[in-house]
Amino acid sequence: MSFLSLSLDLSKTVPSFSLHHPEVAIHCLAEMADSKETRLHLYQLVREGVLDDPGNESGKFESYDEFTKNIYPRCYWAQRGGVFLALAGTAWVGLSCITTQGKTGHNGLTVVTRAYRGKGIATLLKKRIIAYGVAHNLSRIMTRVAETNQAMLAINQKLGFTPTLPPSP
């Protein structure tokens, strides 16, 4: 599977945009308790998104026990200030994450459950990631997308992400 690396230059003027959506509210994982319920909601959301990603050729995802032991503590809970959730009432319907290294942000997984796709929620989550980058004085945000994931490529392009060039030999 081929992936594209994309970059958003935050040193240029970034347009302001609304973070309001009529069906969902955006929350930060840092607002949630580290509970079995939180881990289960997150597991179900991440699992559905990863398995549905056109870039996932294996069709596999970790068990809940593996996820809570190996992935959740390191990739989600330890980074909870940069994990944003879309909630429709009490239902967890979307997620996007950002980690930072110096002045660069790295946008990892962005997922939306099947029932809520096509409603602008992934775009809203990506906008929240951009707002985080601006608020934390990052100079750029990087992301990777499977070349076959046309929906996410279109969202990234609409928000100003551009392909990064490979280093010269």
TrEMBL record:
Keyword Nucleus: no
Enzyme Commission no: 2.3.-.-
InterPro entries with a match to the protein in the record: Acyl_CoA_acyltransferase, GNAT_dom
Coiled-coil region: none
Enzyme class, spelled out: transferase
Gene3D superfamilies: 3.40.630.30
Keywords: Acyltransferase, Transferase
Acyltransferase listed as a keyword: yes
Pfam families, sorted: Acetyltransf_1
Record domain N-acetyltransferase: where: 24-169
Any one GO molecular function term: acyltransferase activity
Protein name: GNAT family N-acetyltransferase
Organism of this sequence: Laceyella putida
Taxonomic lineage from the root: Bacteria, Bacillati, Bacillota, Bacilli, Bacillales
